[in-house]
From TrEMBL:
It comes from Glycomyces algeriensis. InterPro entries: Acyl_CoA_acyltransferase (IPR016181), GNAT_dom (IPR000182), N-acetyltransferase (IPR051531). Coiled coil: none annotated. GO terms for molecular function: acyltransferase activity, transferring groups other than amino-acyl groups. Residues 16-174 form the N-acetyltransferase domain. It holds the Pfam family Acetyltransf_3. This is N-acetyltransferase domain-containing protein. SUPFAM superfamilies: Acyl-CoA N-acyltransferases (Nat) (SSF55729). Signal peptide: none annotated.
Length: 177
């Protein structure tokens, strides 16, 4: 992994580049959001106003140092936005030193190993900001997300009922190695 040259906060493995998500990503994100992405990332389809607000919050969190670190997953020489990955810290369901990762790819980018690459890069980022363990939480039926966790080296920890009533599978990865 190396920082992308000339880009603040960018991480790259030569195929995938992670850059902070922000207001400039509105059109690509809005166009890329589909039913599957909405379903697994737990929400309703974005409205233009809601998405603009979200992307502005992402930029503020970057400038404030968290607790959410939203990256755009970018590919190719033109750094096309292929999806997103978040490193979330300080959440009520996490222990001290844990980071939750949430990710999704737009339909045309799925099935190419990009999510796994993005998760590995996001783990490197989480370790660099002092996290000791990464967590991926996904619904048991979300087999694609579970497969990404496995390919990125995460181990199944538990299936648990969350306070909001959802049942989620937890996968963890020690970042101290």
């Amino acid at each position: 992994m190396r920082k992308a040259e000339g880009m603040h906060e960018a991480l790259t493995d030569g195929t995938v580049t992670l850059l902070p998500l922000g207001p400039g990503d509105f059109e690509a994100h809005y166009a890329g959001e589909d039913e599957e992405l909405v379903r697994w990332l737990g929400g309703d389809p974005s409205t233009p106003e809601g998405l603009r607000d979200h992307l502005e919050r992402c930029a503020r969190w970057w400038s404030d140092g968290g607790p959410f670190h939203h990256f755009g997953i970018r590919v190719g020489d033109d750094l096309a936005l292929a999806g997103t990955v978040e490193v979330q810290t300080g959440q009520y369901y996490l222990r001290e030193g844990q980071a939750n990762l949430a990710y999704g790819l737009y339909a045309q980018w799925r099935g190419r190993g990009l999510a796994t690459r993005a998760v590995i890069l996001a783990c490197s980022y989480a370790a660099a900001i002092g996290c000791k363990e990464a967590v991926i939480r996904c619904e048991p039926a979300n087999t694609r997300s579970a497969a990404v966790a496995a390919r990125a080296g995460f181990a199944f920890l538990q299936r648990r009922s969350e306070p909001d009533g959802r049942v989620l599978d937890w996968y963890t990865l020690d970042l101290r190695d």
